[in-house]
Amino acid sequence: xxxxxxxxxxxxxxxxxxxxxxxxxxxxxxxxxxxxxxxxxxxxxxxxxxxxxxxxxxxxxxxxxxxxxxxxxxxxxxxxxxxxxxxxxxxxxxxxxxxxxxxxxxxxxxxxxxxxxxxxxxxxxxxxxxxxxxxxxxxxxxxxxxxxxxxxxxxxxxxxxxxxxxxxxx
Length: 170
What we know:
Elements: H1 2-22, E1 43-50, E2 53-60, E3 63-66, E4 69-72, E5 85-87, E6 104-106, E7 120-128, E8 131-137, E9 142-146, E10 157-158
Antiparallel strand pairs: 1-2, 2-3, 3-4, 5-6, 7-8, 8-9, 9-10
């Protein structure tokens, strides 16, 4: 009888291991497709504008709000539609340009003209008061920095080097 319990236990363990090995699921918490915002960027972000005024960006799973105005959702049409476009490190390299410095996202990937873009957004490794910051880049070497809390200091900066694109996503 003792041998029978050992064999049963061994059979159950072997079956469980085989089932566990074949049933693994990989999850990506950052990018979930074109209609869901990256989880790392969700939340409310602030950028100091001076004179005790802040720009407020609120990102939810299916919406992008800019100063309390709903800019992008999956239900909107044309370039107002939330359509996440992901750019990877090194993408768009060529002609002496290194390409993007890290992963970044555009929230209205169906835009037709550059003026319709709010910019490329990413979660930076840079920290302000212990919290990671979100950054964006639009045009003309301007890098905007957003914090999770209202801080009366603008951390945005300009970078005019040839490899400016390599700073996007860092």
